[in-house]
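job 3f2a | input accepted
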Amino acid sequence: MTMDPSWPLAGIKVLDLGQIYNGSYAGFLLAHAGADVVKLEPPRGDALRFRGAGGTTPLSFSMLNTNKRGLVVDLKSDDGRELLLRLAREADVLLENFAPGALERLGVDIDALMAANPRLVCASSTGYGLSGPARNNLAMDLTVQAVGGVMSINGPADGPPLKTGLAVCDFFGGVHLYAGIVTALVEASRTGRGRRVEVAMLEAVFPVLASNLASMYNQGGTPPERRGNRHPTRGPGPYNVYACRDGHVAVICVRDVHWENMVELMGRPELATDPRFATAKARSENDDALDAEVAAWTKQWNKADLAEALKGARVPAAPVRDLVEVTRDEHMHGRGMLHDIAHPTLGDVVLPASPLRFSDTPSPEVSVEPALGEHTDEVLSDWLALPPGEIAALRAHGVVA
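job 3f2a | predicted structure (401 res):
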């Protein structure tokens, strides 16, 4: 596969054994940085591939696997494992997010792969890591949110713990896996030696608790209460989501000047000197009264008009947009982050490029995800120089598809 040499990872060969979200997103980031990423799937395919309506490919699979090539290898067969070893000798990176020990149970010894190719970066993302007492706990995004403390601080004070609406642990794991891979590639470029890289979803999500952990520390070790859309540490205010006539607007007044600008826009300049609201500390201590004043005003507006007015007043604010509005975002389309794609099976969809931008590279392009085994012949020819007859024999024996 020929890549534009201006891309930073052009020439890097990646065996992407990622599945569902976590590993697949790391492979996505590598592919969109110019690497030749080969998505290696079992004959049944990635488990996410057929989770769409009626067993079709869902949009989520397409989003995470653009700009990759597709290869099917049966790793449960001796010949399939041997083929993986041959591919690994040509690769710079092998990534996976199976449960700990899963590849070894398939008969694929990671140490043997790295011995065959000393420069190979072998990267793993798991729920809890490859070591430690929780190593073998089953890990899904929901369960890691639960055990990792995310749910304990999410939701309103008078309700139960809530998961986020996003697969944050899966994707934080994927982002950190990408970072670990690129870090190890830098080392390999200097030393000629690869290494094992691992990421635990539980550990990757811990730093996002920073504000909440600070609040706990300030309270002498008592976990903070859930505060819904309010600031977790009773910090600056107003800090909330407020109802409008046709939706909601999020507002955060980080500095006193933001509040002063806002009350001028409200036509209530006296609120700036009201003892309940004159300082950030006072506003945090009187947040119920503060929210009541703001909400009485915002309900008179349409969300788009209010957000624009607040922007003009230099108050940090934004309309709460639904997913249709987000996919139509002119800013992201204009920057080349979002692309309108005529997908061969899904129809007209919006697919993302990578959020990572590199200077002096061409405008990002998006090619749709490979069909199951779409590039098997091409990859085996490119990477291993296998003749058509040998590929045909492997296919006839069910080793590849």
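job 3f2a | DSSP finds 17 helices and eleven strands in the chain.
job 3f2a | closed
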